[in-house]
Structure formats: structure tokens, C-alpha cells
Design a protein that fits this description.
With about 550 residues, the protein is an all-alpha fold. The chain has 22 helices and four strands. It has two domains: about 130 residues, no CATH class; about 400 residues, Growth Hormone, Chain: A. Strand 1 and strand 2 form a beta hairpin. The two termini are about 45 Å apart. About 50% of the residues are buried.
């Protein structure tokens, strides 16, 4: 027995016994293991300054006088409760979530190699924020899967009117400007109602908000199929917007508490996969449903059912604690003057500018891509939906998955890294979409290829902007921040894009007096999108470049205020 250090008590399995003893030079900061470690574990009990290791049986740790607070993987001192560890001498006690992981690897090395490797610098906790959430009963994977499914339905339901533009125009005698108004009315309400709902998400249960929102927008999606006039359809779509406005603030706030900063980009990318996949599913199915049933109303009836099922599933999830994924401690008290605090974050101002440009382009494309394929390229409704699903839907899957990984890697070097990645992608997307829209009517395949590449790059905006909000805004204000961000972007971007594109289309078509009515409609729409889309993408890139200049400073202020 070495002075001051007791061997680990024998638990009846002598072959797996490990001892704490000094090395040959008398330095007790190293560990020598004769055999693989025992299955016996110890739990860390938190004290004011020091953490003492004690066996789960309640007996004193044989090396308790050497045990102290342990650094986490970010270098900050942290204390953990009920964390399985291996008894070691001093700060080199090894921590492991599973027996036989790192310890078994050490045991198989030569004694000198084990001794040299297992120094004090090797001691760190391997528990990530997601691991701690799992221990608290909050499973990140199933929650993210439900959020993804809800987001998919969110975009599926809102995309239906954009696919049935021609049937709606035929039944109600509408112009392109009125079609744009149908989308704009939804977007305006979505943006305005989202602000109080975002504030509500910072104060109340996000799980309940998500469930109620899903039920609301699913029911009114089904009721949309009962509309008898354009005015009635417009009013019902406004109510759909109220329900859908509850999702983004609550979902993004929850993502911020489920995943730490260095994994948040991928998590947001997976959440935002609901956008392109929702578009793909809608563009691939709504046209076929309309032709199969002989009416555009059937698509609304069918779309209402899945949302009600997802709403029920949300009632069974366990909501994460606010700030659970932050590396530094955060306060859970009420924030005074929340809007004043957020308006002082310069990064948000630039992100809003980027969002305006992105939403103008996105909503113009989503609203008029199917009519563009029908008018300019002469495709049928199902084929137009299929090609639109490829160009702006399937591309998003690759764009969000790859973009999320690249953005997270860039953020490990600098908080501004992911924002620069998004800006660079948008700068490449603008000329590609412009080149595709300048192609003639005989080059539909080339159009699909070039526009798809450009729109794939456009999706890098989402994996840059949404994680950047969580990087500069504390957990208690994230729902409010997202709602303000979305309100501004939808009011000035999403609502403007379809109306602007539709109005320009009507004007250019009216000016083409030397063309037939169908040719003029195709010419007007293509020329309108050629102007609106590339210019909007350049505006979004400028916003992200501005945000990148301030994100590091604003992140430091957030941590200082926590």
C-alpha cells in the first residue's frame, strides 16, 4: 500500500482489478494498470469547489484526496452528477461512459506506453451536450425527427396553391398578380402572428405550441378544399398561415437547446430538409392527385390528415431545458425589454437583410416554377410538377446535408465561418440561375441541370442564417429572435416576391403586343423571374457578408451577459 492511497476494493473479480499507485519515479499523477479495469464505477458528487469520487456503494473513494473538479472537452471546469468514472490517482482518474472503451485500449498497450499516454492532460469528460440531454430523459433524435416531419408538412401544405395555379385561374378567372396575392396574404399573416407566438415560445411549453399549431393549420388546409370563391379561399389560407406561424419560432428555439453550437448547423440542416422534401412531395403528388380526382380540391383534403397524426405524437415528447446545450451556464429568469435587447444585436439586422433577399427569390420560384414549365417549355401539369420538384426540391436535400456539414466545420475555426460559407454559395447561385432563365424553350433539360445547381447552392443560406441566430442570441430570447427575423423576412421578402414577380409578369406580357396571348404570358413570366431571382440572391449574399463582420463580437456579448 502506498502512503495516502488505498487500492481499489476487491469486488470478487480479482482478474479485473485495477490499482492506483505512483509510477517508478514516485509521481502519482500517472496511472499504471496491470489488468483491464473492473466493472466497479464511481459517481461524481458535486461540491462547492472540489468534486470527490465516491463508490456508488457509499464508501469513501480510496483516492479521494486526489480527486478534484474535472475540465470538460471545451476546457471549462464543469461538475457532473452520477457520472460513471474509474477510480484513479488524482486528476488522472479516467472517465468513461462504457466499460472497456479507452481503458481496454490502454490495457492492451505495453506498460511504458500506457504510462506515458495516461497523463493529467488526458483527463477530460467525453460527454457531449446531447449525451447529457439523453441522461436527463430528453432524446434528441426522436424530437428532431418529429420536427422534421412537421416542417415537411408545413411546406407541403403551403405549396399546394402554387401547383394548381392554372386550375385556379381557370375556375376563378384570376391574373398572375392575384395568384401572387394569394401567396402574399398567407405570408403576411404568417409573419405578423409569428411575433407574439415567438415570444410565447420563450415563456411557455414549445411542445404544446407545436401540437396546437399543427392541428390548426391541418384543419384549415382541409377546409381550403371547400372554398367556392377566390375571396373565401384567400380567407382560409390566411387562417392556415396563423397555424403555421407557430412552428418556426418554437422549433428553432428547441433545436438551440437540443444541440451545442458545433453540431447545430447539421441539426438545422436536417430540420430544414423538410423544406425541399415537402416541396418534392407536393410537386410530385399534387398534380397527379388533381388529375386522378378531376379536381384541385382533393389535394387539400388529403393533405390535412398527416398533420393531425404528428400533432398527437408531439404530446409525448419531453421538452429540453432552456440552455441545456450551452457550454456556459445560462440564467432562466425573465428577460426585461427583450425587443430592445435584440435590436442591439447587429448580426440580426444583417441576417434580416439576407432573409429578405432569400425569401423574395424562394417564394417567387415556388409560386411560378410550375407555370414557367407549362407556359415557356410547354409541359403538362404533372410533368411540370415533377421537374419543379427536381430543380427546387431534390436539390435542397443535397444542399442542406452537405451545407450543414461544411458550415459546422467552418464554425469550428470561427463563429463567422459558417456565414461566409453561405454568402459564397449565394454569390455562385445568382449567375447560375440567371444563365438558366436565359435559355430558350427547346433547352428544358439544360435548364433543369443549371438551375438545379444554382438552387442547390442557395440552400446554404439556411445552414448559415438559422444557426447564426442561435450563436448570437441567448436561449431565453431565441424564440422571439426567430419570430422577429421571420416576420421581417416574410413581410418584406416572402410577401413581396410573388406579388412583384406576378405584377412584372402581367406588365411584360401586356407590353408584348406582337405575340399571341399564350406566348405573351410565357414571355412575361420568364422575363420577370430573370430579373427578380438573381437580384434577390445577390441581396441575400450581401446580407450574410455583413452579418459575418459582427457575429463574433455579438457572440462574445451573449456569453458575457449569460
Amino acid at each position: 500500500m502506498v502512503d495516502g492511497v488505498q487500492p481499489v476494493p476487491d469486488d470478487g473479480r480479482a482478474s479485473n482489478r485495477a490499482e492506483c499507485r505512483p509510477d517508478r519515479d514516485g509521481d502519482s499523477s500517472r496511472i499504471r494498470r496491470r489488468r483491464p479495469p473492473a466493472e466497479r464505477t464511481f459517481s461524481v458528487r458535486h461540491h462547492q469547489r472540489n468534486d470527490t469520487l465516491e463508490p456508488e456503494s457509499g464508501n469513501p473513494c480510496p483516492a479521494a484526496h486526489h480527486c478534484r473538479e474535472l475540465p470538460d472537452r471545451r476546457g471549462a471546469s464543469r461538475s457532473f452528477h452520477s457520472l460513471p468514472v474509474r477510480c484513479g490517482s488524482g486528476p488522472t482518474g479516467l472517465l468513461s461512459r462504457r466499460t472497456g472503451s479507452r481503458e481496454s485500449a490502454m490495457a492492451n498497450r505495453p506498460p511504458d506506453a500506457r504510462e506515458d499516454h495516461m497523463t493529467a492532460s488526458d483527463t477530460r469528460t467525453t460527454m457531449s451536450a446531447a449525451d447529457r440531454l439523453d441522461r436527463a430523459g430528453t432524446r434528441t433524435g426522436p424530437i428532431l425527427a418529429l420536427l422534421f416531419a412537421a416542417n415537411l408538412l408545413n411546406f407541403y401544405d403551403r405549396t399546394i396553391p402554387a401547383i394548381i395555379v392554372e386550375p385556379l385561374k381557370a375556375e376563378f378567372g384570376l391574373s398572375d398578380a392575384q395568384i401572387g396575392l394569394l401567396s402574399a396574404a398567407f405570408t403576411l399573416v404568417y409573419a405578423i402572428v409569428g411575433i407574439p407566438l415567438g415570444r410565447f415560445a420563450d415563456r411557455r411549453s414549445r411542445r404544446v405550441i407545436l401540437s396546437v399549431g399543427l392541428v390548426t393549420w391541418s384543419l384549415f388546409t382541409g377546409i381550403s378544399g371547400l372554398a367556392t370563391t377566390f375571396a373565401v379561399l384567400l380567407a382560409i389560407r390566411v387562417l392556415v398561415g396563423i397555424g403555421e406561424s407557430s412552428f418556426a419560432p418554437a422549433a428553432n428555439s428547441m433545436i438551440g437547446d437540443l444541440y451545442p453550437s458545433d453540431r447545430r448547423g447539421r441539426a438545422v440542416g436536417l430540420l430544414q430538409l423538410g423544406l425541399p422534401l415537402g416541396l418534392v412531395l407536393a410537386f410530385f403528388t399534387v398534380g397527379g392527385i388533381t388529375e386522378a380526382f378531376g379536381t384541385w380540391r382533393a389535394a387539400f383534403f388529403i393533405a390535412a390528415v398527416p398533420g393531425l397524426i404528428i400533432a398527437v405524437l408531439f404530446a409525448f415528447i419531453r421538452e429540453p431545458r432552456r440552455g441545456a446545450a450551452e457550454s456556459a451556464g445560462t440564467s432562466t429568469g425573465e428577460v426585461d425589454r427583450p425587443f430592445h435587447r435584440l435590436l442591439r444585436v447587429r448580426t440580426l439586422w444583417w441576417l434580416v437583410l439576407a432573409a429578405i433577399g432569400s425569401q423574395v427569390a424562394a417564394y417567387a420560384v415556388a409560386t411560378f416554377s410550375v407555370p414557367l414549365f407549362q407556359r415557356h417549355f410547354g409541359m403538362s401539369l404533372p410533368t411540370s410538377g415533377l421537374l419543379t420538384g427536381i430543380t427546387i426540391g431534390l436539390t435542397g436535400v443535397a444542399g442542406l446535408l452537405v451545407g450543414g456539414r461544411i458550415a459546422d466545420r467552418a464554425s469550428r475555426r470561427s463563429a463567422a465561418g459558417r456565414v461566409y460559407v453561405g454568402a459564397s454559395a449565394l454569390l455562385l447561385a445568382a449567375p447560375l440561375t440567371l444563365g438558366a432563365l436565359l435559355l430558350g424553350e427547346d433547352h428544358v433539360a439544360l435548364f433543369v441541370i443549371i438551375f438545379s445547381v444554382g438552387w442547390l447552392l442557395q440552400y446554404a443560406y439556411y445552414t448559415a442564417a438559422y444557426p447564426a441566430i442561435a450563436d448570437v442570441v441567448g436561449p431565453r430570447l431565441r424564440g422571439t429572435a426567430v419570430s422577429i427575423y421571420l416576420a421581417a423576412s416574410y413581410l418584406l421578402g416572402g410577401a413581396v416576391g410573388p406579388v412583384l414577380a406576378g405584377a412584372l409578369s402581367d406588365r411584360f406580357a401586356a407590353a408584348a403586343t406582337d405575340l399571341t396571348a399564350s406566348e405573351a404570358a410565357a414571355h412575361g413570366l420568364r422575363l420577370s423571374l430573370t430579373i427578380v431571382i438573381p437580384a434577390s440572391l445577390l441581396l441575400a449574399a450581401a446580407g450574410l457578408l455583413g452579418a459575418a463582420r459582427h457575429v463574433i463580437r455579438d457572440q462574445a456579448r451573449m456569453h458575457a451577459a449569460s
